[in-house]
Amino acid sequence: MTDAIDTSALATKVFDAVKPAIGAYGTGALVRDEQANAPHAVELGREILQEIYWRDKNVPPLESAVNDFAAGSQDEDAAAGLRLEIKKVLASDAALAADIAKMVGGSS
């Protein structure tokens, strides 16, 4: 028996979680080291984004989507593009999706 993960719903949760990190660090959120004085939401978003980034097999589309979103975070097209790239990565790697689901699921 397998627990199917709804990658669309998970991608939306991930997008919501990584927005603060991209807002704070821009594209640097992909590679920036942990900052002890950063707000929890920013650090959690950075951790999630980096977990996806470092485990993704095809990073250029994700990098491009993060760049587009960082350049115009009020742009709904850039937001949709980033959500789509996150969804593609999660759909292509069930183990990563499960790990990320735990990260965005909060403390349980």
Summarize the model shown:
This protein is mainly α.
Structural overview:
The chain has 108 residues and is mostly helical. The protein contains five helices and no strands. It has one domain. The chain has helices at residues 7-25, 40-55, 59-71, 76-92, 94-104. Helix 1 packs across helix 4 (76-92) and helix 3 (59-71) runs antiparallel to helix 4 (76-92). It is globular and about 35 Å long. The chain starts with 6 loop residues before the first helix and ends with a helix.
Number of DSSP-assigned strands:
0
What is the count of structural domains? 1
Ends: how far apart? 22 Å
Task: Report on the biggest sheet.
Answer: none
Whole-angstrom Rg: 13 Å
**Average pLDDT, all residues:** 89
Low-confidence stretches: none
Question: How are the SSEs ordered, and which strands pair?
Answer:
Elements: H1 7-25, H2 40-55, H3 59-71, H4 76-92, H5 94-104
Helix pairs in contact: 1-2, 1-4, 1-5, 2-5, 3-4, 4-5
Keywords:
108 residues, 5 helices
